[in-house]
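[job 4417] fold queue: 2 targets
>>> target A
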Amino acid sequence: MHYPIGLLFDLLASSSALPWNITVHFKGFPEKDLLHCPSKDAIEAHFMSCVKEADALKHKSQIINEMQKKDHKQLWMGLHNDRFDQFWAINRKLMEYPAEENGFRYIPFRIYQTTTERPFIQKLFRPVSTDGQLHTLGDLLKEVCPSAVAPEDGEKKNQVMIHGIEPMLETPLQWLSEHLSYPDNFLHISIIPQPTD
């Protein structure tokens, strides 16, 4: 429940055919593996907590703190009711930044790997280098998860997936954050073994 469905698909079933078959069990909830959801309010609180964390990274929490309670509710209700216009009217503010800053303060991202026990990797990473160059997805991976990137003369062992696609490593991280972040405003990046077929 606490991972977006697209992320779960990238991690667990990206090589399977669509539509994705999901089995729902109504008994024997795996308490050790999944976060139990006691109510709809708990889901809303978790979602808003993630949005606030992402805004703290991007804008020092300035945007989310300037919003009124009704804006927070509109953001949640737009997502909950699958009303993109209602959601985007508020979320747009969280995706903006002053032109003179060339991007967010830090990129809110999480990297997930199927080959490790660690749930995800999350570190501070700026979208622009100290010399003013835009950082790319490849730059992020080389610094945070170097095993995910194939050496220049080596064989590619991993696929980097976001929303079911494999973006080029040369893609600017700021652009990815603006256009491929999940509704919680995080860029969820999956690193999976390269398919053999």
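>>> target B
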Amino acid sequence: MLRVYLDERRDVLDELVTLHNFSNQFLPNALRDFFRHIHAPEERGEYLETLITKFSHRFCTCNPGLVRDLGLSPDAVYVLCYSLILLSIDLTSPHVKNKMSKREFIRNTRRAAHNVSDDFVGHLYDNIYLIGHVAA
């Protein structure tokens, strides 16, 4: 019911996102924290896009130094969030036989987020591999 309410009341969703402080949090951990409070939808769609867009902007606002040092933008964070969600599903789903390797994740992510370093993307992979799904 919360998801339906927030989907209908975007003004309330905006205020809830503003209450989150993602300062000094590694991106996958911040995304987990976000989805712990604002439950991720079970399917892709407009509501998930809205959540990730709002999260991306808030993450950048809370981490101006990181944004500057890594050359991130809300659009780049948005792409990285989708990559993390897809990787999470890939690594945890029993239906996926051939799990994505770290090299494949870096290559695929760098195609969409050109200015992000291989090392940073590699650390994202390691976090998901070791800690688990971002939207569980």
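[job 4417] complete. Note on B: The helical segments are 2-8, 10-19, 27-37, 46-62, 64-70, 74-92, 102-112, 118-131.
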